[in-house]
Amino acid sequence: MKKLVLASLLLALSSSVTFADTIKVGVVGPFSGPAALQGKNFQAGINAWLAVNGNTIGDDTIEIVYRDLPAPDPAQSAALTQELIVSEGVQYLAGYYYTPDAMAAAPILEEGNVPMVVFNAATSAIVNASPYVVRTSFTTWQTSTPMAAVARQRGIDKVITVVSDYGPGVDSEAAFVAGFTGAGGEIVESVRMPMNTNDFSPMMQRIKDSGAEAVFAFLPAGPATLGFVQAYVENGLKDAGVTLLAPGDLTQEPDLAALGDNALGLLTTFHYAVSHDSPENSAFVEAASKAIGSASELSFPAVGAYDGMYVISKMIEATGGNQDAAAAVEAVKGLSWVSPRGPVSINPENRHLTQNIYLREVALEDGQYINKEIQTFENQGDPGWKAP
Amino acid sequence: MSDISLTSTKPVWQRTAMRDLIAVLILAAVAALGYLLFPSNLALLTRIIAVMLLVLSLDLVTGYSGVATLGHATVFGAGAYAAGIFAAKFGVTDPLLMLAIGALAGAIAGALSSLIILRGHGLSQLVLSIAVVSLAHEAANKLSAWTGGSDGLSGIAPAPLLGLFRFDLFGRTAFIMAVVLLIAVFVVLRIIVRSPFGMLCRGIKQDPIRVRAMGAPVYFTLVKMYAIAGAVAGLGGALSAIATKVVGLDSLSFTMSAEALVMLVLGGTGKLYGAMIGTLVFVWFEDRVSAINPFHWLTIVGVLLVIVVLFAPKGLTGAAETLWTRLRRQS
Amino acid sequence: MQTILSIAADALAYGMVLFIISIGLSVTMGLMKVVNLAHGAFAMIGGYIASYATQQMGLPFGVAILAAVLGTMLIAVPLERFLYRRIYGAPELTQVLMTIGITFAIIGIANFVMGPTLKTIALPAQLQGPVDLGFRTIAAHKLFAVAVGIIVAGALWFIIERTPFGVRLRASVDDAAMAGALGVKTKIVYAVSFALAVGLAALGGVVGAQLLPIEPYYALHYMVTFLVVVSVGGAGSIAGALVAALLLGAVQTTGRYLMPEYGEFFFYLAVIAIVCVFPNGLMGRSK
What we know:
Chain A is α/β, with parallel strands linked by helices.
């Protein structure tokens, strides 16, 4: 009798496995730590996508497995990634907020037969680390380059660049300098600030002394942006007419309320604004706000995750739920769709998104500070990518 | 009491050799158990061993020699970056050679940084060590042409171990290499801490003035110990570089130094197995808790640390020893 | 000349903020011999309370400061009674472990209760906007920070040197057993000093929030900076902490202006140089 029960139980178990597969997606991101907000946005983007599209693709059910990586830590990233592949049996890897973490995960993709969809990490070279890397975010080169054109269009001849002294800051500086000098502008000075700078007054004094008409700045989204923008206003640079130009990391939406009136009128270039006006974005913002709990916490990593889920769903469709990383990646090369951020496509050459970059101005609408899109640079590739 | 008088009839070296053998067997057994029970978490286990080497190294300077430091990641990072740079930029991809380079770089970094850190005592020593690790971190960030800066040093492709065993997805090769390395280091350290040199270090910890009065060179002895500790941590760094294939700035950070100190105090200072148990418990706990609830694990880890201080102020091994002696006295 | 004055003004303001937060730590470390790594966490709690009071409850700035200081003390009193009292006189490493644990827990709770985003404190109109100094303009809240710093230094000096409580405190520090024998209730003296230190941390958190913005990882980000100031100044010395804060503020500000690329190198090299020459801090007592 006992044996019979056991046998039928086993049968029931095995039959359920054959009829509908569960496809696991491993997501590595900063769910705690200083960048916990960005991890929360990964989760919001994923949940929004699941809420809108359901968690089944054909016969297969998607299951998300989260792993926390609070700070850049390649050793831990490699350990988590390996554990996700080997022990959780994930068919897809996704997330990765910081570049070194993505770099550490890339070498094991081929052997694990797993594609990786990067939701954020923004260094151009990541896609070269493995042929199984696809990226649905942006690169710092991509978002910084159009700002050079903006500056020239506005008749600015002399610019000082001020960037945080680390990888993305250096990328941003290089992108702007290349674009701006290429268009006939002059860089009067390039300053790199230590990462943990908290008093920006001396920097502002230096900007003043340089005689530049505008300052191009890069700071990572988060606490430091507050002090920077405040110092810019308090030291009279805004009143003196020194334009502040920056990639959108400086004015990510959750920080805007804290920046307040000081940020009004700031010009930034970026791939996504929460206020983007399109039916796709309205649907996304509604679902993602519900997922994250408070609309004011919504930021750009959510859209990277949302589009990443779309790409993964297409990969699952193409492979019929079978684990075949090469076929999955091949299937999404050249894929194009309308994302909440606008029309996008995956460049088959480097598996990175070609997308619109928008010039935005911080504005106050209905009591909310927003990044208002005022100009579009269509179909921008990644100018920072070099074929390996 | 009775068994002590029994064993003490044997020569001292025999007794200690016997204990060493038992310790090595226990270590090997635990490693084998880890391999069998968690075959899919070998990367985590390898990482734990790399950190263990760092904490063992910290124990040498803090637990055995009384130097307070919150900057010990300096020597770990030196080993990791040296091994990584030689592999990525100069094509030195033999894993054993990379380990040797890491140990050498760690020893040099240890000796150099000790020249600064040993100038202070207590609080000022802590601050000097923080300054040293911060300088090293800044320097690695600045020299991004060599270190990859904040993007991390990638492109490390270790050759098969002994030309035979590839570093595979499951991390078996890396794990076995790590275990052998750990056991070898453990045996060597057991010998060192029992040697007259090791005893001298303990003496310095207890009373540096008296040791100086005896005519022993305090400063030079500590520099030497620092170099040995640096080599151990450097091995850990190189191991991490080989297993991960990427070296990040975190390996040279204040955070890593502080965590190492937390692990050491958690396990119990001044005992080699205390350092290893502290690391195992802390990293394992952190990994499990953050997997179960990635959103609130920091609070739980914090509360755990407070509980340890309140109820096991000598660390986990200290508490276990107290319990053990109490039980024995009762029986 | 104008540049030098300008740097000096920034350095003074920044140094004063460092001083206000660090002086509380100097009290706990110098007088009570506790390496309190959770000090920054108390400053952060003060900042959060002030932010909540001004933004959510619409209270005036002055009331918010008071609420922050008292509220943080209220939170700290049970911590002192049940946790810190257990580590007075314990080895430094044990203190480090305990206070790091407290810091982790406070960060986790802050993240949960207040959310991961930046919080700001609404300033009154008088403290917003620039003030003209003749050679340049400077933010009014920075001048406020300088004023608060001077008042704090003066008041502390008065309390410790001129009041009966100060006498008891100094006696307890010099020889707790002897002071106890002479009728000083050392436990109460310690509890009051701890509350005082925490209150100063909270005050610093609020006054310095414009430079060191309030977010959950505040407690870890600036821990090292505060520790460095106390150590360079000499634990337990008011004048030492003031000189150290101003000196390090000047080094950092000048470095940031002249060679921002190597700003941090200057800072830490200066720390190493000072500590090597004065192992007990600029004005610390030798042990």
